[in-house]
Specification:
Blueprint lengths: L36 E4 L5 E8 L4 E5 L6 H4 L9 E5 L16 H15 L3 E5 L1 H12 L6 E5 L10 H16 L2 H9 L10 H17 L26 E7 L7 H10 L3 E6 L4 H4 L1 H12 L1
Parallel strand pairs: 3-4, 3-5, 5-6, 6-7, 7-8
Antiparallel strand pairs: 1-2, 2-4
Helix pairs in contact: 2-3, 4-5, 5-6
Length: 294
Amino acid sequence: MRDFRWPPPPDGGPRTYGPGPSAPRTGRPALPEPATEIVTTPHGVRLERLVTGSGRPVTVFAHGFGSGIATTRPLGSAVTGSKVFFQFRGHGRSDAPPGPWTYRDLARDLRAVADLSNAGRAVGVSLGAGALGRLLTESPERFERVVFFLPAVLDEARPPASTERLHHLLDAVGVGDISAVADVLSAEIPPAVRNTPASWAYLRQRIDQLMRDGLAPELADLTGEVAVPDRAALSRVTARALVIGCVGDDLHPVAAAEALAAALPKAELHVYDRPGVFWTNRADLRDRISTFLN
């Protein structure tokens, strides 16, 4: 893998894939991944978990499709108390039980991690937002405060273009096509920062993790699933909620965020005016989430 050359490195950046004499000479390289643990849930699925911080309150963070702990951690950087990050089934070192899978299965994973950690707050990103919504339809009083960041689907299926991109990622990881994986992941990065040392470090970290751990093929079952059978069930949720969407994101239509906020009784909605929020509005995003939760 040392001869990997995609995408073109930024000026002063790495000339080959991976660490070595040609590692980045400008910008801050990605931090090493912290040691995680494997926990056994009551429903028998072992999940990878990382706990940071200490004390109360306790907040659980649920990641997006094909993502994981590393990319979700920045959302909790200013959140007080204990922070619990985990990998859904089929991601990282978590189990991949026989499918087919639905959002109800993901909600069970999320509930188990939250219960094991005594978490009273939750943050769901994309796929994780769908799992959080499904959990709340079944247990509307489970959390005190919840954050939905870039919800992708509610009670209507994903658009075909979104489903196609997710299948491309699964296929590329499945056959070990690094360039194809990078091609899919780079679409998440705004063009203005796509050839910077920071984006290169991000891509390298994501590719390393995906090539090491893979993605379970059963995740394909979820691309056509809805998160909740009927959004009306969310009217019983007692938690205060913050819903965050953005305009122009094909994978996370702003209409999904608007519909979710309208369905929740105690929700506030914030919509960013362009996609790539992690890259263009990271400080504001972090402050917005931490202010709401703290």
